[in-house]
Design goal:
alpha/beta; 8 helices; about 30% helix; LACT/PDAT_acylTrfase
């Protein structure tokens, strides 16, 4: 039996108690009625959502032609703050947003949100809510496979020049990733090593973009191989070598 759950872009994990309850019931009933294991395949924000479900609490690769037109809309979406670069992976002096007058690192995100709308907004509170939710996340506690794309230009820094500052036209400085998610984020999966007894498999898929990850035939073949194979099997596919449990770098 195959079931697909799709999340709207604006939805954040701390707003999904009913969904979590329904998913838990679905998994438990499926296991009981079919007497088979359940394999959950998640993508992007959905992985954080499912990790929240597995944890102790209930807790866009899309092109924008004219950023200014939709900028105000995206700033009101809770999921936007949930995906912002904060936490241990981003705890560095690296500049993420640059203007002529001020630079912002991950430690300056609250200040950045205040500067975006100095007359008052709910932006800082939305970020704090996301930080609290993310802090609750633990390890999956189940055998896990992480695929991540590389080789695509992925935004790494935003530069705003001129008197308009943060409301002006942005220049994007790119790094490596899948076009949406930076390669640094795979360290989340590596961080589970040694913290759970179940194996963690990690596989780089070069040239596969964020959105293509859910339709790439080799990845799909690997997932089917993993889901239908022996209990200890790792994903395989024509272009994907046999995975070995990842080692923490």
């Amino acid at each position: 039996m195959r079931i697909q759950v799709t999340l709207e872009n604006g939805t954040c994990p701390d707003e999904m108690e009913k969904l979590f309850h329904n998913m838990q019931n679905l998994v438990e009933k499926t296991v009981k009625s079919k007497n088979e294991k359940v394999v959950v395949v998640c993508h992007s924000l959905g992985c954080s959502v499912f990790l929240t479900l597995l944890g102790p609490g209930i807790d866009f690769g899309q092109s924008i032609i004219q950023p200014k037109i939709v900028r105000e809309l995206f700033r009101t979406l809770p999921s936007f703050y949930y995906l912002m670069p904060f936490g241990k992976l981003w705890d560095t002096p690296e500049v993420l947003v640059q203007t002529d007058k001020k630079n912002y690192t991950s430690k300056d995100l609250l200040e950045l949100l205040v500067d975006l709308q100095p007359n008052g907004s709910n932006f800082p509170n939305m970020l704090l809510d996301a930080m609290i939710t993310r802090k609750k996340l633990g390890v999956p506690g189940v055998k896990t496979v992480c695929f991540y794309g590389t080789g695509s230009q992925t935004p790494a820094r935003l530069v705003y020049r001129g008197p308009e500052g943060l409301n002006g036209t942005q220049e994007v400085i790119y790094g490596d990733g899948d076009g949406t998610v930076n390669t640094r984020n795979i360290e989340v999966c590596r961080g589970w090593m040694g913290r759970q007894k179940q194996p963690v498999f990690i596989r780089e898929v070069r040239g596969v973009t964020h959105r293509a990850m859910v339709s790439d035939s080799n990845i799909i073949d690997a997932i089917y191989s993993f889901a239908s194979g022996p209990q200890a099997a790792a994903p395989t596919a024509p272009r994907l070598a046999m995975l070995k449990p990842a080692r923490k770098h």
